[in-house]
Write a structure and sequence with these properties.
Muramoyl-pentapeptide Carboxypeptidase, domain 2, 2 domains, 5-stranded mixed sheet, 3-stranded antiparallel sheet, 10 strands, binds zinc ion
Length: about 240
């Protein structure tokens, strides 16, 4: 106590003020203790690891035929340009309300992770998601698990992109992201040896190349990038290493 008093003197703080502060703090702590802890309803969604779960989540979303997307949305997304007619065609877009954007759809990755920021239609974000490419991601994760690796250390960086967003990312106008047939992701430390490096990326690449994508689609390897990979379900074999598609 003597030490405290000396300290108070040195700092020129009145003892009375000090005592008042102590009492006020104690009162606050006691009153906080008396308050019942507010119940927070946090429903933590489990990660998505099965095709069935993907189907279930997507079945909760409203759908709209491309021809029903308003002129305003088409203009703002860049879809009104003739060269993107292929991205409309007879396609059906999912309409994602803001309340569902953080819903997990692939592992711990959310719908937002797979969606372009940008214009809305009827207060919802129109998204093209080809289930086939989502399923490929699940197959990749299953294969990694079988080999004793951890697929949770993969982060999706892109899924569907509307043309305006695709342009801003420097994507080709025929990019498989525009039709929701592609995923980009960063491979982390999947072999859990403490570092995320090319070794991890090659483990994933080999699984994709030999088991998952094979001749059904494309894989962008980007050897210059330590983590990035692209997969798509274009329907025929494609491999590249140099630039983004
Ligand atoms: Zn890509």
């Amino acid at each position: 106590m003597i030490i405290i008093e000396r300290l108070i003197k040195r700092r020129k703080i009145k003892l009375r003020t000090f005592k008042k502060t102590i009492i006020a703090t104690l009162a606050l702590l006691l009153s906080a203790g008396n308050n019942p802890v507010k119940e927070t309803k946090v429903t933590k969604q489990e990660k998505v690891t099965t095709k069935q779960k993907i189907d279930q989540i997507l079945s909760n979303l409203q759908k709209v035929h491309a021809s029903k997307l308003g002129a305003d949305y088409l203009k703002k997304s860049g879809l009104d340009h003739k060269k993107y007619a292929y991205a409309l065609g007879s396609r059906t877009y999912y309409l994602v309300p803001e309340s569902m954007m953080n819903t997990k759809i692939l592992g711990n990755n959310t719908i937002r992770d797979l969606t372009s920021p940008g214009p809305k239609f009827e207060d919802k974000t129109p998204v093209l998601l080809n289930k086939k490419v989502l399923y490929k991601y699940i197959e990749m994760c299953d294969a990694l698990k079988k080999m004793g690796h951890n697929p949770d250390n993969i982060k999706i960086t892109a899924g569907h992109r509307h043309p305006k967003h695709n342009d801003s990312e420097g994507g080709a106008y025929t990019s498989k992201h525009i039709t929701g047939d592609a995923l980009d992701f960063d491979v982390g430390d999947v072999n859990t040896n403490g570092t995320a490096d090319m070794e991890d990326k090659l483990i994933v690449y080999e699984i994709l190349n030999r088991q998952v994508i094979r001749s059904t689609g494309g894989i962008g390897k980007y050897s210059w990038h330590p983590h990035g990979l692209h997969i798509d379900v274009r329907g025929y074999r494609a491999r590249w290493d140099s630039f983004s598609r």
